[in-house]
Write a structure and sequence with these properties.
Number of helices: 10
Structural class: mainly alpha
Radius of gyration: 26 Å
Length: 242
């Protein structure tokens, strides 16, 4: 809609200004590289790609798997779940089941898995912080570009040909800073935070399921415990599927 609004009034190239791109883009990225290490900034690009293009898992799809594992453990014993460790692609789930199969007590399993969740959330938070910082710096460098353009324009009032480029830099840098922050960086940071919260919830569901199976709960009890992670409407859909 922004592009369409521009095209209704002028050609798109009217809003292209190389000095403004250098001031806002270079300034925001440069300040971010001072704030964070180079490795942290590059690593977050992979996190952002996974966040934007990966499909988050559904708790409703995971609950029936735990009920099935609880039934199997009840019939054949907890050691029967060792095959699940080899078959699953979820490393966190595989680690938890392996701990249960190896005979770790419930407190140790909970502590190990919760520590894993805490460190994962910290890594995600760092990624969100980087995009928040870029979103914070971009409008500031837009204002710096505006000041640069105004100085250039006022210094050359006697030369009409210099007024236009100075005014363009003054206005376009503010536009670039606002677009960079509010259309890209801050929304990506928000999505990273939301996806992180969803992943934490999924992992806590896994922890609850593993602890419940390890304690020998009835499959029906396992199901009821895990259904508490879902909103009431989704709980009904799980029952309907059964």
């Amino acid at each position: 809609m922004i592009l369409y609004g521009i095209l209704l009034g002028s050609p798109l190239l009217t809003f292209y200004d190389l000095p403004s791109v250098m001031i806002v883009g270079g300034g925001a990225i440069g300040s971010t590289l001072i704030n964070f290490t180079l490795g942290e900034v590059f690593s977050i690009m992979k996190v952002a790609k996974n966040t934007l293009f990966s499909q988050p898992a559904s708790p409703a799809a995971l609950i029936p798997q735990f009920v099935e594992m609880a039934q199997r453990a009840k019939r054949e014993g907890i050691l029967a779940l060792e095959s699940v460790v080899e078959q699953t692609n979820d490393k966190f789930l595989g680690t938890g089941i392996q701990l249960a199969v190896d005979g770790y007590d419930l407190e140790a399993i909970g502590d190990i898995l919760e520590s894993d969740i805490e460190h994962m959330h910290g890594r995600h938070q760092a990624g969100s912080d980087i995009f928040n910082k870029i979103g914070y710096y971009a409008p500031a460098f837009g204002m710096i570009g505006t000041l640069i353009g105004l100085v250039q324009m006022l210094k050359n009032l006697n030369d009409p040909s210099a007024i236009g480029p100075g005014m363009a830099t003054a206005l376009i840098t503010t536009f670039y800073g606002a677009i960079m922050a509010n259309l890209f960086c801050l929304p990506i940071a928000g999505k990273l935070a939301n996806r992180s919260d969803n992943e934490v919830m999924m992992k806590r569901l896994v922890v609850q399921g593993i602890l419940s199976i390890s304690s020998g709960d009835n499959p029906r009890v396992v199901e009821q415990k895990l259904l508490t992670f879902l909103p009431p409407k989704e709980r009904k859909s799980v029952f309907a599927g059964k």
